[in-house]
Amino acid sequence: MKMAKAFAPASIGNIGPGFDVLGMAITGLGDTVTAEKNRGRDVVIREIKGGDGTIPLETDRNTAGIAAKEVLKLVKAKHGVDLIIQKNIPGTGLGSSAASAVAAAVAVNALFGNKLDREELIPPCAAAEHSVSGGYFIDNVSASLFGGIIVSHAAQRQAFSIGTIPDLVVVVVTPYHSVLTKISRAVLPDKVPLSLAVSNMAFTATMVAAVAQKNARRFGLAIQDGIVEPARAHLIPGFPDVKAAALKAGALGASISGAGASVFAVTDRKSHAKKIGLAMQKVFQQHGISSVITVSRVDKHGARVLRAR
Amino acid sequence: MKMAKAFAPASIGNIGPGFDVLGMAITGLGDTVTAEKNRGRDVVIREIKGGDGTIPLETDRNTAGIAAKEVLKLVKAKHGVDLIIQKNIPGTGLGSSAASAVAAAVAVNALFGNKLDREELIPPCAAAEHSVSGGYFIDNVSASLFGGIIVSHAAQRQAFSIGTIPDLVVVVVTPYHSVLTKISRAVLPDKVPLSLAVSNMAFTATMVAAVAQKNARRFGLAIQDGIVEPARAHLIPGFPDVKAAALKAGALGASISGAGASVFAVTDRKSHAKKIGLAMQKVFQQHGISSVITVSRVDKHGARVLRAR
Q: Does residue A300 sit in helix, strand or coil?
């Protein structure tokens, strides 16, 4: 095989209360990576299409490059690869770095005969995320890899998909305002009141149960985070008002997507999605910030090989 | 109607990492309460059968009495009731006070025409638990009421059953050593490291997913609590050794049942249950404490009216 091209969806980490535990792949946004064998032993990022021009081409500073290198090691490849990265995820907070890593890992794995299964691709992708964010978490990479809504335990290196809720509609508003995951993680408290930990745990457990029950309403109403959202709210201009506007417009729940600055809201009524998105966008505008609205559903499939020859 | 008799199963609160969130009704143990209308307006506890003789007959200090009083208020009863309580739950840590409250609430509700649905019986039972323990939690009462494995959010006054895992076998070893819930709650830290909160949240989410997947193995392996178990271990003589013995004998996971002193272990192999129980009992014996072994499964049905006329 000479080339393989793979797609990996964008994702929402945490999904509110489930910090570093829950993640959700979403439809409509994602990165595509084409990997071609080269004559050397290295990973060369040949081109990055799309994106905002800030993503480094240097292999060791690019999550696709790092993940590709790790996969090459694991499959004991005798070739290097050239990568072409097509970005289609706006701003920050939608697992953009994870999607690039996952698409690269899946493409390179396909290029060398799919020796690794999906679970085995988590560590290479997590290593890539770690190197750019400083944290070890796998909610975005496992959502992007497996699809659906996932439960992850980073310290245990474990994650699995629990499926989807067909009725769930996800509205994401991405402001033109970047938040670095490194900074988003640095503002978190070292210790939290036990009562808040119990509350977040109960809401997270409720959300997992709601996925099993295909209950969009229960899922959305449980998006209540007393720990991470309050600590990060100040990093996103106007966040409390954006969230309030989403709820006022009929969203079941809303919170920061991953480390931000994207903000997401959920509803079980497709007809409400546009109104919710516009209400959120309007508030960002009032704070002097332009934004992009994306209306999605849960991506059930996760990363997939688009072409291999 | 003149009398109603109801049964409520014993339960395991927390189930390891899910402090105040997860609960499980178990088969084979439980309390029965008979309620009869009397000529006054009060709740009179006529008799307590079984038990260790320490449970107060005084209505306001007895969880069955308190729950019965609360239900009488809610149904606007024009009669009082006499209660006969039959205890069949050994020691502490198996939701004994909750089962008495639940059985009383269900019996009294039946006696007055089942005006309240199951969800509406949570507050009366929670009030009873609160008055004897000082904490407001509903994991035991909702497990005993609804049956199955439950997810609860005490501060939100919400709980629901997520069903059962048919393969799950639960071994409980109850030492002759009481631990008061009040004391068990007092030893908990006010604040916990965020990393531990995330870990407990991930294990709890995994357990909920495992119930949906009917995966006893995943459920059992996720019974890992880095917050509450370490804080309470010293209240149960020999606990670390009892737990280690359970795991060595083949249990998938083990922890303190509720506030203790009972210790539970789970397995997906019925044939291992006796061995696991005996191994745990032996360690308690080495610490000079006699104990009772109960081999159970998840009680799917929850509290039920046995007779009403």
A: coil
pLDDT of residue A133: 82
* A153:B21 CB<8 A: no
Q: In Å, how far is A150's CA from the nearest CA of chain B?
A: 10
Rounded Cα distance between B216 and B168, Å, is 5
Domains of chain B: 3-164 (3.30.230.10), 169-296 (3.30.70.890)
Distance CA A227, CA A191 (A): 10
Point out the residues of chain B with pLDDT beneath 70: none
User: Which residues are CB-contacts of B38 (< 8 A; sequence separation ≥ 6)?
Assistant: B44, B79, B80, B81, B82
**Backbone phi, psi, residue A24, to 5°:** -150, 125
How many CB atoms within 10 Å of residue A286?
13
- The partner residues of A84 in beta bridges, in order of sequence, read A34, A47
- For residue B181, what pLDDT is reported? 83
CB of B227 within 8 Å of a chain A CB? The answer is yes
pLDDT given for residue A146 in this prediction:
98
Category of B139 on φ-ψ map: left (φ > 0), alpha (ψ -120 to 50) or beta: alpha
Q: Which regions of chain A are under pLDDT 70?
A: none
**Alpha carbon distance A149, A163 (integer Å):** 6
Q: What is the mean pLDDT of chain A?
A: 96
Q: What is the rounded distance in angstroms from the CA atom of residue B95 to the CA atom of residue B153?
A: 17
**At which residue do the structure tokens 């990393």 appear?**
B195
pLDDT tens digits, A221-276: 999 999 999 999 999 999 999 999 999 999 999 999 999 999 999 999 999 999 99
Model ipTM over 0.90? yes
Interface of A with B in 148-177 (CB under 8 A): 151-156, 158, 160, 162
